[in-house]
C-alpha cells in the first residue's frame, strides 16, 4: 500500500526511474540546539538528502544506541517535545514543499496527544509519515485509520529476527516504505553483512511491493554504497549525530557543525551514486 499522491511514493518512484537510491539522514529534533534543526534539514537536502527522518526526543529511546540516546537527552534538556518537532516540520515547509519528512519516535507522546489530534497536527505541519518504534502492527488499526484519513504514511521496522508471518502482517498495514534494521541490537552498533541484508530484503520483497530502506550500522560512503547495491534507500543516523555533537563539543558553532554534517552526507551521496554508475 502507498498513500496516493504522497511525497514519499513520488520520491521513490522518481528515484527508481533514475536508477538511484534514496538517501535518508536521521537527526534528532532540537539536538544540539532547537535553533539548528530546520537549518540543518535544509543543509542536508542541499547535500543530497531525498527524505528527512526527524527523531522525536523521548526519555527512554529503547531502539537507539548511546550516540542517539545522548542526542535525545540533549534535546529533552531543552524541553523539545513532539509538538516542537511538528513546528520544525512546519517551518521547514515554508521553504521546501517537495522533500518528504518522516517523524521517528515512540508511541507514548503520540498516544498522549491523541491519534486524531496528532494526525491533524501532522497534516497541518506538512509531515509525510510516522514511524513509532514500539507500536506493533497488531495494535495499529486506530492510529492507521487516522493517518490514512490525513494522508500520512505509517512506516514499520523489520529486524533480522522478524519471522515471515510477522513480515506479512507488517506488509498489510505499512505504507510509504519498509525500514529494514540491518543489525541485531541498537542504532550505531556492529558491522554490516551485505549478503545477509540482501537475503532479508528478498524475504521482505516477497511479502510487499513497497520500497525497502536499510538503516543501522551505515557510517560512511563505503558502507552506504554497499547497502545501495541491494536496497531502495539508505538511512544514516548515528554518524551524523555524533559528528555534530563532536564539533559542538570542540567549540565550533552550530552552523559549522551543520556544515560538517552536510559535508559528510555529500560524501555519502557521492559514494552511493558512484556505486550505481
Q: What this model shows, in words?
A:
There is one protein chain. It contains twelve helices and nine strands. Strand 8, helix 10 (221-228) and strand 9 (233-236) form a beta-alpha-beta unit. The model is unreliable at 1-5 and 185-189 (pLDDT under 50). The chain has helices at 7-18, 37-46, 66-77, 82-93, 107-113, 115-125, 141-149, 164-173, 194-207, 221-228, 238-249, 254-275, and strands spanning 22-28, 52-55, 101-105, 129-132, 153-154, 156-158, 178-181, 212-215, 233-236. The protein has a single domain (7-275), classed as Aldolase class I (TIM Barrel, Alpha-Beta Barrel). Helix content is 50%, strand content 13%. The protein has a nine-stranded parallel beta sheet. Helix 2 packs parallel to helix 12 (254-275), helix 5 crosses helix 6 (115-125) and helix 11 runs antiparallel to helix 12 (254-275). The two termini are 30 Å apart. By secondary structure, it is of the alpha/beta class.
Task: List its traits.
single chain; about 280 residues; globular; TIM Barrel; 9-stranded parallel beta sheet; alpha/beta
Summary?
The chain is an alpha/beta fold and 277 residues long. The protein contains twelve helices and nine strands.
Amino acid at each position: 500500500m502507498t498513500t496516493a499522491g504522497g511525497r514519499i511514493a513520488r520520491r521513490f518512484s522518481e528515484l527508481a526511474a533514475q536508477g538511484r537510491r534514496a538517501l535518508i539522514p536521521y537527526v534528532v529534533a532540537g539536538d544540539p540546539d532547537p535553533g539548528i534543526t530546520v537549518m540543518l534539514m535544509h543543509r542536508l537536502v542541499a547535500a543530497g538528502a531525498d527524505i528527512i527522518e526527524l527523531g522525536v526526543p523521548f526519555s527512554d529511546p529503547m531502539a537507539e544506541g548511546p550516540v542517539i540516546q545522548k542526542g535525545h537527552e540533549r534535546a529533552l534538556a531543552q524541553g523539545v517535545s513532539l509538538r516542537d518537532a511538528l513546528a520544525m516540520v512546519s517551518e521547514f515547509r515554508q521553504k521546501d514543499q517537495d522533500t518528504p519528512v518522516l517523524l521517528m519516535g515512540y508511541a507514548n507522546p503520540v498516544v498522549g496527544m491523541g491519534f486524531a489530534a496528532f494526525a491533524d497536527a501532522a497534516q497541518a505541519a506538512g509531515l509525510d509519515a510516522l514511524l513509532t518504534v514500539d507500536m506493533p502492527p497488531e495494535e495499529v488499526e486506530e492510529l492507521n485509520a487516522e493517518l490514512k484519513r490525513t494522508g500520512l504514511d505509517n512506516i514499520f521496522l523489520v529486524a533480522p529476527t522478524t519471522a515471515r508471518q510477522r513480515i506479512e502482517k507488517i506488509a498489510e498495514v505499512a505504507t510509504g516504505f519498509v525500514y529494514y534494521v540491518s543489525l541485531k541490537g541498537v542504532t550505531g552498533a556492529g558491522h554490516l553483512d551485505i549478503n545477509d541484508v540482501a537475503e532479508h530484503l528478498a524475504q521482505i520483497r516477497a511479502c510487499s511491493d513497497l520500497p525497502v530502506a536499510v538503516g543501522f550500522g551505515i557510517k560512511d560512503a563505503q558502507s552506504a554504497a554497499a547497502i545501495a547495491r541491494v536496497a531502495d534507500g539508505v538511512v544514516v543516523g548515528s554518524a551524523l549525530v555524533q559528528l555534530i555533537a563532536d564539533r559542538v563539543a570542540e567549540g565550533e558553532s552550530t552552523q559549522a557543525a551543520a556544515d560538517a554534517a552536510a559535508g559528510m552526507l555529500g560524501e555519502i551521496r557521492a559514494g552511493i551514486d558512484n556505486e550505481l554508475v
